[in-house]
Amino acid sequence: MRGNRIKLLREEKGLKQDELSKILGVSPSAIGMYERDEREPNDDITLKLAEFFNVTTDYLLGKSDNRNNENIGFNKDNFKIELSTKEYKNITEEQKKQIEDFAKFILKDNKKEQ
What pTM does this model have? Predict the structure, then answer.
């Protein structure tokens, strides 16, 4: 676990260690040990941290520098289109919807041929 990431996320939210400990149901000293990499949170706490801070567990574990999975995709059976929004600046929800609608429009002709 990358304790410095827990500390960074906690500080970004303006929380003190004891406030985060109450949210997670652990002792304030446990939070300090997580942040200093002296102790690893169990899987349940890791999931709670990821959920609370809206980040991936891979980010918390230091396996990825991406905080969120920001992919938009269209899945149908074994067919998948995936586009990483990290490649684009300031993509809006409307643009995401337009991409999905366009993919559906292109694929609608396939339904007619079957």
Answer: 0.59
